[in-house]
What does this fold into?
Amino acid sequence: MTRPTLIAPSILSANFAELGAEITRIDEAGADWIHLDVMDGHFVPNLTFGPPIIKAVRGATDKYFDAHLMVTNPDDLLGAYVDAGCQGITVHAEACTHLDRTLAAIREAGCRAGVSLNPHTSPDCLRYVLDKLDLILVMSVNPGFGGQSFLSSQLAKIAEIKEMVDGRDIDIQVDGGVTAANAADVVSAGANVLVAGSAVFKGGPAAYAENIAALR
It folds into this structure.
């Protein structure tokens, strides 16, 4: 079965002075999901935003809120992101001591459960939790900052994960340096959800629809 390709703009590249309006703009420009890059300044060397900001902008769109928790203690925070209006929560395999339990908790809270892998992390860590996954996120840059260049080494990992998924109802998402120039390679490798920040928000609001169409 061919899964539709979805575009999930990362609001990390949006104008934070107009964040609610920016989310409405990318919704109207053709975004499928809204990607929320949550960073704690500990697991990754940057600090972004958390549940209060997400809750404040939840009313700007009815699109799917896709939270990517780049945090050291995801288990302690799950409830806050559910309450803020996130429909999908992705945690890092590297941050979860008991990944199976964390994924079960996300699903029990009524959200879709995802796991993210840093560039150095082998997909083997997913083999025994596949049946508790709704999404696998391949980081194609080292997480922490926007605007980095795509690591082509991750194309082989995407293909390996696609084979591992073996027809299960699991989205394969890629985040980091995704542009119109490499999107076809990413999808050909097996991904169906493209996260893009700079590639969507470059050029300002007048360019958002054109940028999203170029990714498609």
Observations:
- The chain has eight helices and eight strands.
